[in-house]
Amino acid sequence: MNWLIEVFHDGACPLCRREVDMLRRLDRGRGRIRFTDIAAPGFDPAAHDRTLDDFMARIQGRLPAGTWVEGVEVFRRLYAAVGLGPLVALTRLPGVSHLLDAGYRAFAKNRLRLTGRCEDDVCAVRPATRG
User: Domains in the chain and their CATH numbers?
Assistant: First the structure.
């Protein structure tokens, strides 16, 4: 296994898809990142000892040894995997780290609304549409 992190992403989220597409380009086919779409038909969160709500609440990543990481740490691991280590180092600075963690928590809490996936103040997870 040559991947460094498996990211569980929401393929029905437009912003998330753009991020995944960028990471795929930066990975340049090296396979450093394993991408798993939690909105794909057939995805079974129970196979990973998690619920869909767990996966929807915060971005999840799994390391080759089976260790799970969440939130901003997933992004740090993803960016490091594609060669952006110097940028990752900056995100670990005390003030920057706290700001990123708070910003991500706010985004994750409001992600469905911010990405246009709510109607009449009701946010629901819908199957991914490919088009």
Answer: 5-123 (3.40.30)
Mean pLDDT across the stretch 57-67?
A: 95
Provide the whole-model pTM.
0.83
Question: Does residue 45 register a pLDDT over 50?
Answer: yes
CA-to-CA separations, 84 to 76, 95, 101, in angstroms, rounded:
9, 20, 19
How many Å apart are CA 9 and CA 60, to the nearest integer? Answer: 8
Give the angle subtended at the CA of 32 by the CAs of 26 and 37, to the nearest 5°. Answer: 85
Q: Which residue pairs from 109-116 have beta carbons closer than 8 angstroms and sit at least 24 positions apart in sequence?
A: 111/10, 111/13, 111/15, 114/15, 115/13, 115/14, 115/15, 115/16, 116/14
Q: Beta-carbon neighbour count of residue 86 at 10 Å?
A: 9
Beta bridge partners of 2: none
Contact by Cβ (8 Å): 41, 127 = yes
